[in-house]
Structures are given as structure tokens and as C-alpha cells.
Amino acid sequence: MERTKSRILIAGLAGYNRGDDAILHALVGQLRSRFELDAIAATVLKRDVAPDSVREVLVDRKSPVSQVQLVRAVARSSLVMLGGGSIIQDELKTTWLRGPMALFVEVVTLARLFSVPVVTAPIGIDELRTDQGKKMARFILGQCRLIAVRDERSAANARELLGPGTHVVLGADPAFCLNPRGDSSERTPPYLVLAPAFEATSSPELPDLLATIVERFLGLYAYGRCILMAIDERAEEDAGRTREIIERLPEEMRRRVELRVPATVADVLALLQGSLGLVTMRLHPMILGAGITPVLCLSRGVKTDAIAAELSVPVISVRHEAWSAVRARAAAFITEIASTENRDRFIRTAAAAAALQRARVEDYFSTLRAFLPAKIGAWKAA
After folding, report:
1. For residue range 22-36, what is the model confidence (pLDDT) as tens digits?
2. 332 shares a domain with 234
3. Helix 206-220 and helix 323-336: axis angle, to 10°?
4. Domain with 83 in it: what CATH number?
5. 205-247: pLDDT as tens digits
6. At a CB cut-off of 8 Å and minimum separation 6, what does 76 contact?
7. How far apart are CA 250 and CA 179, in angstroms?
8. Beta-carbon contacts of residue 257 (< 8 Å; ≥ 6 apart)
């Protein structure tokens, strides 16, 4: 008997940020390893970011052609999976037609029109500040037959939105499945990776703060280097502004600092695996680096705090702490990782925590099986 075609559409925001790309790659890998699927499609913000053989559906709300392609992609799907990442958030201006949540409103509306079931990947759900954001979030999540989140804070926010009795599956960020296992090999000369986060609301003093961290490392390692890793490739964010850190350094140190804009998730992993340590303001370098290099998180928000705590990664807030305290804690971290014993301790602790996160992703996919429509292909044996 001929099997019904089975297609999954992953509706996410991969394209400009390697963290969003990591989530997409992880979801595709997990789905392919578990299900007999005829096709996987994924919404993307730019071309050539999805894994091989995944059909990309370019999201451009101003393009009629793009809109038609999205309608077709949803109509042809057996299942729509939303996420991952913090898709339920209203930090940016949010309306029914504008902002990240507007895409997901459109997708679930189309899924409802074509009777396509919707689930979420393990997503982040922020505490919403606006009535508009809350209405949109309730509409999106209300169309999902399975709601999964990546941390306890997101679970609490989901129940705050939908009611205390709402069934929410606690998973973990899918990118943990890309987290390498086993020891990393440090390269010579030693280098520190610093992953900044530049946004429209970033303080103009942020480059000065990060430059002092780089200067501390280079001062401790006479032959050391620092790699500034721009996770978001957009000119108005990391890639366009990270060079400001270099400009704040003493002239003689600048030649030992390099700006990298990794083109792929594999490039990010390669940089982390050979590093002496990672100081990051971005979430996904922390997720990918946990257990392969010591990590210090400079937290910009509670979503980062939550996952850093679950990973037992040292974290200091750049929102509330005086920046003199941030400098002091970062200097102490750099001094600590000069010791092989301390580095190994950081790595062992985070590796154990990352393994628990991967297990939660495994649990999510086990739970997902019960929510799948019959036309999805057979479950593969483990």
C-alpha cells in the first residue's frame, strides 16, 4: 500500500542569527532521525541557511510571491511546527501585521484554514508587556495541539497567558542537540571568544566595557588572541558594531584581536571547541559551548538568566550590576581559567547540565509522537 505523503513545515526565524540557524539545524536532525518523512520545509529570513534537502520558504511580508509560497507550504504540510527560540515576545513593536509574532499569527491562521495541526518546538515565552502582545500570544498558542517550552520560566508564562491548568511540556532548547560531546582540544596560541550583543537599545558605553575584558585577557596571555564572534550578521546588530570594541583597545593590542562573523553553525562550533574560554552576551554561544569550554554569561535579560542557571554557568547581569562589578567578575573569570584544573571544573559542571538538557529534548520528541497526525511517517526505532 502506498503511504500518504508526510511533510513537516518548521516555522521559525532562521537567517541572520546563527542561534536561530542552530535551532533549525537541530530540529531537522532530530526529526529526520525519528520519523520517515517525505519532506521538510522551513521558513527563513534569507536563503541558504537551512540544512541540505530542506525546502526554504522565504519570509517577506511585502512580497506577494513570498506570501503565496507560504500559503502553499502550509497547505501542503501534514504538520506545522512553530519555533524554536523566543517566538512569543513583544520587546519589538508588535501588531497583527508587524513584528516576529505577526508571522506566527499568519502561519497558524493558514494552518487552521487548511486543517493542518500545529505544535510548538520547545520555545521561549517571554513575560509580555502589552495587551496586544498577550492577545496575539493567546491566539497563536490557542491553535497548538502541543505546547512545549525550553525552560521553567517560559512554562510559567504560558500558564499565566492560558490558565493554570494548561498542559505545557517542559523540553529544552533544541540547539543542545548540536552541543558537542567529549573533550575539546585547545589551540596554540590560546584564544578567548567574546560574543557581544549589540541592539538598538545597547548602551553607548558597552564597547568600552567589553574592551576592558579583552584587554584583561591579552594582558594575562602575552601571546594570546581574542576572537570577537558576531552571532548576528546584520549591520545594525553584532556584525556592524563589534568593531567598536577593537577601536577602544590600545593600539598595540589590536593586531591580536580578530572579528569573525561565522557563516554557519559549524563555524561557531569550531571556534568554541578550540578556545580557552567564552564570554558571551548571546544565548546560543552559551548553549553550544557548555561542556566544551568554560563560559561566563553577561546576561541582558531574564531569559538568559534562566538557562544560565540551569547550566550552572556563572552569570552576571549587565542590566542591574554596576559595570565596575561586571569588569571585576569578568577579570576574575579570566584569571580562573588560566588554571587547567579550574577550566576542567567549569567544563565538567556544564557538560553534566547540558546532558540533562539534551535528555529533555529527547523527552519532548517522545511526547510529540502521541500528538502527530496519522499521515506522519512511521516512528523510527531508536
Report:
1. 999 999 999 999 998
2. yes
3. 20
4. 3.40.50.2000
5. 999 999 999 999 999 999 999 999 999 999 999 999 999 999 9
6. 7, 41
7. 35
8. 214, 218, 225, 226, 227, 228, 245, 246, 249
The domain total for the chain is: 2
Of the candidates 153, 177, 201, which is a domain's last residue?
177
| Residue 164 and residue 196 in one domain | no
DSSP string, 206-265: HHHHHHHHHHHHHHH-TT-EEEEE-SB--TTSHHHHTHHHHHTS-GGGGGGEEEE--SSH
- pTM reported for the whole predicted model: 0.94
> What b-and-e string marks burial along 340-355, b requiring 16 or more CB atoms within 10 Å of the CB?
eeebeebbebbbebbe
Q: Rounded CA gap, 293 and 300, in Å?
A: 21
Q: 3-class SS at 348?
A: helix
103 and 29 fall within a common domain: yes
Q: Is residue 345 part of a domain?
A: yes
Of 112, 145, 177, the residue that ends a domain is: 177
Going by the DSSP 8-state scheme, the letter that residue 291 receives in this structure is T
Domain span at residue 156 reads 7-177
How far apart are alpha carbons 312 and 351 in whole angstroms? 10
